[in-house]
Automatic annotation (TrEMBL):
Cofactor: Mg(2+)
Name of the protein in question: Beta-phosphoglucomutase
Single GO term (MF): metal ion binding
Reaction catalysed by this enzyme: beta-D-glucose 1-phosphate = beta-D-glucose 6-phosphate
SUPFAM superfamilies on file: HAD-like
Top EC class, one word: isomerase
Keyword entries, A-Z: Carbohydrate metabolism, Hydrolase, Isomerase, Magnesium, Metal-binding, Phosphoprotein
Xref: Pfam families: Hydrolase
UniProt EC number: 5.4.2.6
Domain of life: Bacteria
Similarity remark: Belongs to the HAD-like hydrolase superfamily. CbbY/CbbZ/Gph/YieH family.
Source species of the chain: Krasilnikoviella flava
Amino acid sequence: MTSLRAVLFDLDGVLTPTAEVHMRAWERLFAPYCDARGLAPYTSADYFAHIDGKPRYDGVATFLASRGVELPRGAADDAPGEDTVCALGNRKDVIVNRMFDEEGIAPYPGSVRFLDAVTAAGAQVAVVSSSRNTPAVLAAAGLTERFAVVVDGNVAAREHLAGKPAPDTYLRAAALLGVPAAEAVVVEDALSGVQAGAAGPFGLVLGVDRGVGAQALVAHGADRVVADLGELDAAVLDTPARPVARPADNQGEQA
Ligand SMILES: O=P(O)(O)OC[C@H]1O[C@@H](O)[C@H](O)[C@@H](O)[C@@H]1O
C-alpha cells in the first residue's frame, strides 16, 4: 500500500543543474571580495557550509559572519554593490542571471524520469526552493507546467516564511497540496535543505548527492541518499514513513 502521497522537490541541484551555476556565481562574487580585504580565501567548502540552499541574503550574511564581517542588511531593492548584505546578494544575482542566459538550463534527465514516475503513480508534486529565480529557471528548463504548487523565495518573502534550514517552506507546500507532511517526501541536495526536511514531520527526506557528500547529507537529516534521482522509481512512495517520534516533530519550529 502506498504510504506517501506527495513529493516536494527542491529546484537547484535537484531538478536542474543550477546549484553548480549558483556556486560559480558566488565564487565570482566572494573570491575577489575576500582577496581585496585580506580575508581567508573563498572556497567551495564555504558554499556548501554557508550558502547552499539558503535564501540569497541569508547566504550572504552567514558567509560574511564566517569571516567576521558584519554589514547592514539593507533592503531587497538595494542596487547591486558592496555596502549592504542585500547589495552584495543582488550583485551576485546579476552574475548568475548572466550565466543562466549564456549557458542555458536543461533539467537532469534522471530527475524528469523520477518526476514522470511519481506523477504517473498518482503522487502530487511541488517545488520548494529558496531561489527568487525559480519561475525563470523552471521556465527555461521547460518544467513550469509540471508544478501547480511552487513555494519559492518570492512566496517566502511575501508570506514571511522562514527560509531553509527551517521547515516552513516545505510545510507550506504540503499544506497547499492538501497533504499531511507525514505523507510527503522532501527531496534535497543541500545540507540546509535536508535539515529543513528533518526539522519537520515529513514522511521521508531524500538526499541527492551533487557534491556535498552522502555522509554529510545523512548527518544533516537525509534518510536515504542517491547520486541521481534516475536511480529511483515510484516504489519510493511505498517507503514506510519515518518514525513519528523525532526531535524535529515540532511543526513550524526553526531548525
Ligand atoms: O539568489 P536566488 O536565486 O534567490 O537564490 C538563492 C539560493 O537559492 C538556492 O536554491 C541555491 O541553492 C543557492 O545557491 C542560492 O543562493
